[in-house]
């Protein structure tokens, strides 16, 4: 069992979360909104890991609203130690772009891609 900032994860969960973070980082590098948002493996993996959407409420309570911006995530990422908390925020943002964004291609905007890249990089580090 691994305890990262309060969340206890077994090695299999840690490995799956790491693989998901690396997979998403690769998709962001390909710059294809369809491959990022249309990939059914992503919500399935979040579900298998018992990661729920919360609209970024938990991470905002702990780190403040600025964590929802690319600049804020880049600054605060080193302080984040709970992979499940970070995964919940990632899933919430991913789901918003996949389901409710007026233009799903906005997931590739510098702001969104910057946020996801910083968050996913940190998640990969926490689960390596």
Notes on the protein architecture:
The protein is mainly alpha-helical and 128 residues long. It has one domain. 64% of the residues lie in helices and 5% in strands. It contains seven helices and two strands. It has a two-stranded antiparallel ribbon with strand order 1-2. Strand 1 and strand 2 form a beta hairpin. The longest helix is centred in the N-terminal third of the chain and has 20 residues. The N terminus is likely disordered.
Measured between the Cα atoms of the first and last residue, the distance is 14 Å
Model regions low in confidence, pLDDT < 50 over at least 5 residues:
1-5
Number of helices: 7
**In total, how many domains does the architecture comprise?**
1
Radius of gyration: 13 Å
**How much strand?**
under 5%
Order of SSEs, N→C? EEHHHHHHH
Q: Give the overall average pLDDT.
A: 89
What structural class do helix, strand and pairing data support?
A: mainly alpha
Morphology: globular
In quaternary terms, these chains amount to single chain
